[in-house]
């Protein structure tokens, strides 16, 4: 078992990573103060892991709300079901919400916890690779709006993150690949050695070799914890975690939520960012090819959707949360292992990047 801390003063919390944690009461008891729990899950993850979790939480009064599965249900309307379940069962401010699922459930349950009775505690139990390496850590919670990703939300930190790596054994292949996009992101923005390590360990990672996958999850959480501790509400370095997301969120919203998975859209977005960086002279040809090769080897898309025009991209990108004074700002790598936020990328640059990728 490995443990990390997200250091945020009196709101600091642990991240525990290991096999079988879902069945171990200790990891929950340390974080849960009251007697009541509301587990938020979905109709795919519930049948797989709810029984184990409820048994583990047998010292508490546990209620469950099961949401429909999918990015298209990450909405204010569906979130209302969580509030209804809490009210119907008379949950008060001492209730803890436990988010059992991937990033969609974690983001929604976290936002419900931030809002219900103006804030109740919550615990993240991420069950996808993407949620284990990224979304369960750092306190970004949200739902989508039809006009933009994660547009309604709050920064609200969990009490604890419990990562049971055994959950990955039931994860569909496509979801594993989507999670790898965020793993690769950490290598590009923060740790060139980790990027090289990924290039050399793809097979062991894919086989879910325990030591290898634990190392990858640990390193991603370590980087995220360090970044979030320095800049919890994204006024500086935290924006780097958004590499590929300005392009990626545009793809997700334009294609219809759930048609491109978040990780798939971010993968293509990172390729677009790499080509943009090459165009501006930040990355050389060899670095760009390494980024594209790793993303491609994992089986992630490297080209934007054929039907998406430059205007489609710009419409969505100008609503991105990093836009400042109506000026587009994107994250671009400056080498493999570091990145910057910049406002110098023009619409013409982006158009030429899209053209170059389509011609490949
Ligand atoms: N808050 C953040 O910092 C942050 C970071 C990255 C992504 N996100 C958000 O996370 C979401 C994407 O998360 P995701 O990739 O986990 O998608 P997801 O939550 O939709 O889960 C992917 C699929 O896998 C299923 N699933 C989950 N765990 C499983 C398991 N162990 N076995 C079998 N099936 C399982 C789910 O039911 C779903 O069908 C997006 O909404 C994205 O915006 C948030
Ligand atoms: O934690 C962060 O900060 C991130 O940007 C992580 C991203 O992987 C994640 O997709 C996040 O939800 C995007 O945030 P948004 O502010 O662009 O909606
Ligand atoms: Zn993301």
Automatic annotation (TrEMBL):
CDD domains: DHQS (cd08195)
Binding site for NAD(+): 69-74, 103-107, 127-128, 140, 149, 167-170
An annotated Gene Ontology molecular function: nucleotide binding
Predominant localisation class: cytoplasm
Domain 3-dehydroquinate synthase C-terminal: 179-323
Pfam families: DHQ_synthase, DHQS_C
Binding-site residues, Zn(2+): 182, 245, 262
EC number: 4.2.3.4
Subcellular location: Cytoplasm
GO cellular component: cytoplasm
Family of the protein in this entry: Belongs to the sugar phosphate cyclases superfamily. Dehydroquinate synthase family.
Protein name: 3-dehydroquinate synthase
Lineage: Bacteria, Pseudomonadati, Pseudomonadota, Gammaproteobacteria, Celerinatantimonadaceae
């Amino acid at each position: 078992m490995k443990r990390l801390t997200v250091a945020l003063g009196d709101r600091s919390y642990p991240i525990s990573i290991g096999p079988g944690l879902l069945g171990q009461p200790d990891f929950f008891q340390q974080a849960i103060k009251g007697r009541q729990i509301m587990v938020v899950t979905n109709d795919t993850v519930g049948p797989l892991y709810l029984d184990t979790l409820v048994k583990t939480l047998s010292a508490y009064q546990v209620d469950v709300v099961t949401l429909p599965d999918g990015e298209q249900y990450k909405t204010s309307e569906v979130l209302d079901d969580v509030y209804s379940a809490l009210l119907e069962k008379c949950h008060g401010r001492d209730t803890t919400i436990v988010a059992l699922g991937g990033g969609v459930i974690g983001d929604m349950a976290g936002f419900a916890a931030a809002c219900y009775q103006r804030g109740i505690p919550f615990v993240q139990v991420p069950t996808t690779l993407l949620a284990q390496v990224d979304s369960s850590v750092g306190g970004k919670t949200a739902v989508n709006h039809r006009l933009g990703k994660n547009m309604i939300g709050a920064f609200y930190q969990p009490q604890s993150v419990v990562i049971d790596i055994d959950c990955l054994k039931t994860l569909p292949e496509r979801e594993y690949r989507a999670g790898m996009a965020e793993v690769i992101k950490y290598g590009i923005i923060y740790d060139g050695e980790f990027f090289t390590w990924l290039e050399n360990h793809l097979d062991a990672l894919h086989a879910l070799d325990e030591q290898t996958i634990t190392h990858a999850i640990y390193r991603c959480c370590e980087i995220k914890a360090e970044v979030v501790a320095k800049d919890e509400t994204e006024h500086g370095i935290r924006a780097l975690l958004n590499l590929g997301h300005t392009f990626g969120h545009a793809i997700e919203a334009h294609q219809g939520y759930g048609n491109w998975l978040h990780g798939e859209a971010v993968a293509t977005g990172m390729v677009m960012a790499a080509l943009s960086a090459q165009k501006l002279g930040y990355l050389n040809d060899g670095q760009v090819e390494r980024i594209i090769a790793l993303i491609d080897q994992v089986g992630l898309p490297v080209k934007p959707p054929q039907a998406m025009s430059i205007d489609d991209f710009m419409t969505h990108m100008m609503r991105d949360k990093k836009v400042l004074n109506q000026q587009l700002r994107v994250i671009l790598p400056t080498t493999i292992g570091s990145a910057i936020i910049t406002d110098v990328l023009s619409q013409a640059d982006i158009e030429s990047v899209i053209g170059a990728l389509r011609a490949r």
